[in-house]
Amino acid sequence: MRKSSIGGPPQRVRADNTTHSRNPSRERPSLIGRPSISGYGNSRLSSYGNQRQSSVNQFSAIPKLGRPSSGIGVRGRTDVIKDTRPIYDKKYQAQCIRQLLEFLISHQYPHPISQKLLELPSAKDFFKIFEFCVGQYWFGYKQVPKMEEEVPRVLKLIGYPFTISKTQLMSAGSPHTWPHLLAALIWIIETLPMTALNIENHGGIDAFIFETSESETVSLEKIIFDDSIRTYLAFMSGADTFEEQNTCVEKILLHKLQGFNVEELNDENTRLETELALMEQSKKKRRKIQEAIENLKCDFKLLSAYVSNLRDYRKNIETENKTLEDELGMLSANLQSEREKLTKLQEVYEKQSLSPADVERLKAEQDSLKLEVDKLEKAIANIDADIWEKSMKQAKINEEVEKEASTYNRIAIGLKLVPETTELARGRDFRLYSGFSSDPVGAFDNTVKPMLLTLKKSTEDSIRKKEKYLFQLKGDNEQCSEGLTELKATLEKIEKELHSLDEEIESLKKLSQSDKMSVTNEIESVQQEIRNLEDRQRQVLEEKDRLTEELKRLTAIENVKKEEVVELTATLDKDFTKICNDAEDYKNSVEQQMDIYTETLQAKVMTKRAHIKQLQEESRDRERRLDLMFKNLH
């Protein structure tokens, strides 16, 4: 039976912990496809030990207290939580910087740190501080190449309720980004100590390494880990067989997989079978009831269709009745009005006291009045035609006046005389208005023309002043041109001086070349001295060769001594290999026994699981049949 070394379990603890952190449903792992117990100490542990320790594995053991989550830091929230802390307040920032500085100094931060550096640090300094703060509680945490992506992922993993984006980390030292990052660091140094206390208050580190679901009391990984410890302790105490440990782990696994509910399931199964037998005896009665139910359903469908048709017919009759009632009301109203007119005419007819001659005379007067009315209407039509012609002429004149006024107003706007707020208008209105109530000619002669004359006079005065100023500027320009000619003459003089300076530079170059020749002569003398030193070096090398031959002689003596030591070492190696071979044979025998035990145990577990699964399926079938029976009865 092969067992892992002491260094094995911690590696497996980290690997299993990572597996639990990636399985949020906390389902109990199945034994199907699981490596055998014999390979637990070798292949599985070595594979986990050789894995790269990423930052995700470091944070997989964050405590889960079992109470309902508030939604902060949980996947699935779409609303953005607003940070209520005054992170842009200078006093709050100074307080946070002092708190962070005290934390770093008290925990021996390995890099240079000061309050001035923490006011606006660079991205590199922030990543170092972040690595140190997180590494205080999760040992071994190191920076990764892309910290801009790592920091938001770690903050989300440890439950930080606010969002830190990648762009903020790219400009960590900017004034608009650093307050958010400073608040995140303060949250880490305040929250992670409480997380470490929660691990101790909720069952120790085992409760987080070996997570269990609500239906489990002990996880399968914890059982295998405890069995490995017991077996290794027995092996270290000199035991050759491990039957007691095998029996213990078999009992624990059987207790875990079977549980205490098998007898209850059997009792429930017998009860359901008896009920099923009673139900099967009443099949004929159930068939009759079903046929009656089907007939009632058909009758119900026919009756519902008939009721819907009656409702539609009733709606049509009601609409027709309503339209007829409206028509009847209108006809009755018309009849009443006609009756009232008839009574009035009857009263007038009864009251009149005219004779037939008076009636004829009134008719003649009516005809003469109609003729006069026709004449007057013709005269009115002629007058209306004259008025129309006059109004059309007036409209044309008004259009021409409006065009002239609009042309004038456009010119005034171009000359900046309109509106009154322009500089030339000076609060006066130069516009001309057209219309029936306006007098554009009088307004132009009385108002606009005098104002334009005064404006013209003031403009001519300003033009004379500008011409005078222009004459002065021309005089100043002539003076400037004279000064420019003088400056050109001085420039030519300076160029001549520059040419003379160039000639002096050439002479200095020639002197430097002569100095260079003297320096080369000195170099040749120095080289001669170097040759003399090389001759001296040859003499020293000859002395070195003589000493080397003496060293070889001493080395030969040393080799003889080494051969004696090698022979002694060979004898010791033979004894060591013999001991290793014996240990390997014993290890292989233990592995074979462990494989056999594992196979038998897995076979038993599979049979038990198949039996339990069969019982569960039978109970589900019975429940479905009972539900169908109850539904049919109801």
Task: Tell me what the structure shows.
- By secondary structure, the chain is mainly α.
- Among the domains are: 8-216, Orthogonal Bundle (Actin-binding Protein, T-fimbrin, domain 1); 354-438.
- Helices cover 76% and strands 0% of the residues.
- The protein is built from 16 helices and no strands.
- The longest helix is centred in the last third of the chain and has 194 residues, at 440-633.
- The radius of gyration is 58 Å and the shape is flat.
- Residues 1-49 are annotated as: Disordered.
Number of strands: 0
Query: What is the 3D shape?
Result: flat
Helix content: over 70%
Give the SSE string.
Answer: HHHHHHHHHHHHHHHH
Q: Assign the CATH class of one domain.
A: Mainly Alpha
What is the CATH topology descriptor of one domain?
Answer: Actin-binding Protein, T-fimbrin, domain 1
Quaternary status of these chains? single chain
Corresponding CATH architecture of one domain: Orthogonal Bundle
At the fourth level of CATH, the homologous superfamily of one domain is: Ncd80 complex, Ncd80 subunit
Mean pLDDT: 74
Structural class: mainly alpha
Function: Acts as a component of the essential kinetochore-associated NDC80 complex, which is required for chromosome segregation and spindle checkpoint activity.
Family: Belongs to the NDC80/HEC1 family.
Main location: nucleus
GO cellular component, one term: nucleus
